[in-house]
């Protein structure tokens, strides 16, 4: 990291490839806003569109968003929308990780810049060692592994899944930027447009796009002396 920039901020958009609407929101937040990195979901139909865009825009760093399952709150309880693999079957988990890494390589024609997972499932104690092993093998950062500070404070729902749009307002994002410390920090985001998504996080995505593209947010980055970058910049 250049000496003139002691604070590196990675604004990472999760769910690239989930749908064309999500892709379009991420593209907009990269071109007009402060998104500097993304995590690709390789199992979904729009993954090829997301990968093609990323290859044409190499400053948008792209990692792998491992996809094991998705859960939503229904009548006060977390219930699965889908499950790709049984997390208790470690051989199946390892095979699925490799399958998604291979798919990423085919789509992007390069290794991922980092690893993370949908709904943070890689933090499950059964999954963590498997994903960590791959991150070490690839020599890339793994979310929550401590190499890079993770900030999840830009999010539009509370712990019960109720809307919390103050969390994705430009004012909150400006606050988050103002609190970025020295070293590298990742701020996660989920920009996009709802095109029939089967997920509990839908309408919040467009609100995120607006905040990420707000001119006041860009001004806050400039005034805070923060450098926008991607995971590849950490060791560069």
Which band does the percent of strand residues land in?
A: 15-25%
Largest sheet: 7 strands, parallel
Low-confidence stretches: none
Number of helices: 7
What class, by secondary structure content? alpha/beta
Order of helices and strands: EHEHEEEHEHEHEHHE
CATH topology: TIM Barrel
Note the gap between the termini: 7 Å
Query: Roughly how much helix do the residues carry, as a percent range?
Result: 25-40%
Rg, alpha carbons: 17 Å
Full CATH superfamily name: Glycoside hydrolase/deacetylase
Tell me what the CATH architecture is: Alpha-Beta Barrel
Give the overall pLDDT as a whole number: 95
Explain this structure to me?
There is one protein chain. This protein is an alpha/beta fold and 236 residues long. It is 34% helix and 21% strand. The longest helix is centred in the middle third of the chain and has 19 residues, at 90-108. The mean pLDDT is 95.
Q: Any key phrases for this structure?
A:
236 residues, alpha/beta, TIM Barrel, seven-stranded parallel sheet, two-stranded antiparallel ribbon, 7 helices, 34% helix, globular
Could you give a short description of this structure?
The protein has 236 residues and is of the alpha/beta class.
């Amino acid at each position: 990291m250049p000496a003139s920039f002691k604070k590196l901020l990675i604004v990472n958009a999760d769910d690239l490839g989930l749908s064309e609407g999500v892709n379009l929101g991420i593209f907009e937040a990269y071109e007009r806003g402060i998104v500097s990195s993304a995590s690709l979901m390789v199992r979904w139909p729009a993954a090829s569109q997301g990968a093609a865009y990323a290859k044409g825009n190499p400053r948008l760093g792209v990692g792998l968003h491992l996809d094991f399952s998705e859960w939503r709150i229904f009548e006060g309880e977390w219930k699965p929308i889908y499950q790709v693999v049984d997390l208790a079957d470690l051989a199946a988990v390892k095979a699925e990780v490799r399958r998604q890494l291979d798919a990423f390589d085919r789509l992007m024609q390069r290794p991922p810049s980092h690893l993370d997972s949908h709904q943070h499932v890689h933090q499950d104690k059964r999954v963590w060692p498997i994903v960590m092993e791959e991150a070490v093998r690839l020599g890339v950062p793994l979310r929550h592994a401590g190499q890079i500070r993770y900030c999840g404070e830009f999010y539009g729902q509370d712990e019960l899944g109720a809307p919390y749009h103050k969390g994705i307002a430009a004012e909150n994002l400006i606050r988050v930027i103002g609190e970025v410390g020295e070293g590298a920090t990742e701020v996660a985001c989920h920009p996009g447009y709802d095109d029939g998504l089967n997920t509990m996080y839908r309408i919040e995505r467009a609100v995120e796009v607006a905040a990420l593209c707000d001119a006041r947010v860009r001004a806050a980055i400039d005034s805070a002396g923060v450098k926008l970058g991607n995971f590849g910049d950490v060791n560069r």
